[in-house]
Amino acid sequence: MGSTPEPGSPAVKVAYLGPPGTFGEEAARRHAPGAELLPYPTHGAVARAVESGEAAAGLMAIENSLNGSVAETLDILIHDTVLKIEGELLVPVVHNLVVAPGTTLDAIDRVYSHPQALAQCRAFLEGHCPDAQRAAALSTAQAVEIAVKETGAAAIATLRAAELFGAEVLAEAIQDQDSNATRFVVIGTHEPEPSGRDRTSIAFEFAGDRAGLLTAALAEFSSRGINCTKMESRPTRATFGEYIFLIDFEGHHLDPACASALDGLGSMTTMLKVFGSYPRASSA
Question: In the CATH scheme, what is the homologous superfamily, with its name and number, of domain 96-171?
């Protein structure tokens, strides 16, 4: 996915949730090899960079196979931006135990990482560092930056982060689940044409709450043979107990059956937002 700029042409700028050495950077590198990568502190800042023209596209994590959806990204797409999802990619989550050069496994008394990474490596830590204190960091990259400066410290991070901070890798692929992957979406102003293997992501809201509304909404897809691959909800932010529903379905919003389903859904909702139709990602 993505393209490399022609020799002599200005590098495409791609925004991602930094700092360098995170899975966000890995997603950006995979999406646009050769691009100029711009790290930002939040997904909201990534979206604003694309809206302002600072970057041509942005990468935002939207779902992890173990931890589920990224609420921040969903809320940005619902409430805060008119940018479209242009594509998606799956990035395998591979965690590694890294230390300052010369640090041995039996010398480790603290392990830094993002809370999700610590949780995803619980079995390894219990088996190899049972007495080490677990300490949260803002990112896996920051964890390495901290750990290399402290005696007896280690970090759980990417190989890229270890390289950036001159750390030594004590153990590779220490995650509990080898199938763990994060789905990233590419956001921008471009709307891809139908590819024949597309996914469409939408959000919608009903005017009220009565029996059968959601069933009727789903029937717009099932009656046309359209496969809905994911469904969830987020609070409206306006009234407690009221929700915005989100659906991913197979197909492009310009496909006749999909367009008809969206027309039917629009007639029963007060808000219908199509985040985008884009080629489905290949395996991680």
Answer: Periplasmic binding protein-like II (3.40.190.10)
Angle CA 93–248–226, to nearest 5: 130
Fold equal for 13-92+180-188 and 96-171: yes
CB atoms within 10 A of CB 126: 10
- d(C-alpha 109, C-alpha 101), whole Å: 16
User: CATH number of the domain at 198-278, out of 3.30.70.260, 3.40.50.1980, 3.30.70.240, 3.20.20.140?
Assistant: 3.30.70.260
| Tens of pLDDT, residues 45-96 | 999 999 999 999 999 999 988 888 999 999 999 999 999 999 999 999 999 9
Contact in structure between 58 and 15 (CB atoms under 8 Å): yes
Give residue for tokens 């389903």: 261
- DSSP labels for 50-84? HHHTS-SEEEEEEEETTTEE-HHHHHIIIII---E
Question: For residue 140, with 0-12 CB atoms within 10 Å meaning exposed, 13-18 middle and 19 or more buried, which class applies?
Answer: buried
- Give the residue numbers annotated as catalytic, written as ranges: 182, 184
- Least Cα distance to 86 among 281, 282, 277 occurs for 277
Q: Taking 50 as the threshold, does the pLDDT of residue 127 lie above it?
A: yes
Q: Is residue 80 within 8 Å of residue 43, measured between CB atoms?
A: no
The DSSP letter of residue 149 is T
